[in-house]
Amino acid sequence: MTIRLENIGIAVRDLEATISFFTDLGLTVLGRDEVSGEWADTAVGLDGNHAKIAVLQTPDGQGQIELFEYIHPDAIETEPTLPNEIGMHRIAFAVDDIDESLAIAARHGFHPLRGVANYQDIYKLTYLRGPSGILVMFAQDLTKS
């Protein structure tokens, strides 16, 4: 049996704002749709499931994010995930220029939780809270600079 990661799914408050953030970082929209019906109820396990979705891909073609904005049932607000909580944690991106990535994030109103760390002069990395409270990590490999 073979297995591969297809995508990471994230429910968001505002699909358009989230798409804008990730496309400004360099991801591209592969497709958009609105899903509902018995098949969607069965697949997701929610009666009356109805959502707007978009699939985005990283520039290298290897990673995909599927974003959902629920129309029904109503989205449930939760507290933002903390870095030490059990469960879905963060989405991480390898970036060529962490400063440029942070400048893009800042234009959307998102900033590092505490600053940019230097791990043994191998990586510069940081966490920020992005759209809908998503934890996003940027990591720049300093050995490739």
Provide a quick synopsis of the model.
This protein has 145 residues and is an alpha/beta fold.
CATH topology of the largest domain: 2,3-Dihydroxybiphenyl 1,2-Dioxygenase, domain 1
Please describe the biggest sheet, giving its number of strands, its sense, and whether it closes into a barrel. 4 strands, mixed
Number of strands: 8
- Cα(first) to Cα(last) distance is 38 Å
Would you kindly provide a written description of the structure presented here, covering whatever features stand out?
By secondary structure, the protein is of the alpha/beta class. The protein has 2 domains: 8-72, Roll (2,3-Dihydroxybiphenyl 1,2-Dioxygenase, domain 1); 91-144, 2,3-Dihydroxybiphenyl 1,2-Dioxygenase, domain 1, CATH 3.10.180.10. It is built from 3 helices and 8 strands. The chain has helices at residues 15-24, 38-44, 98-107; strands at 8-11, 28-36, 50-57, 64-72, 91-94, 117-119, 123-129, 135-141. Strands 1-4-3-2 form a 4-stranded mixed beta sheet, sandwiched between helices. A 4-stranded mixed beta sheet has the order 5-8-7-6, with helices on one face. Strand 6 and strand 7 (123-129) form a beta hairpin. The radius of gyration is 16 Å and the shape is globular. The model has no long low-confidence stretch (mean pLDDT 93).
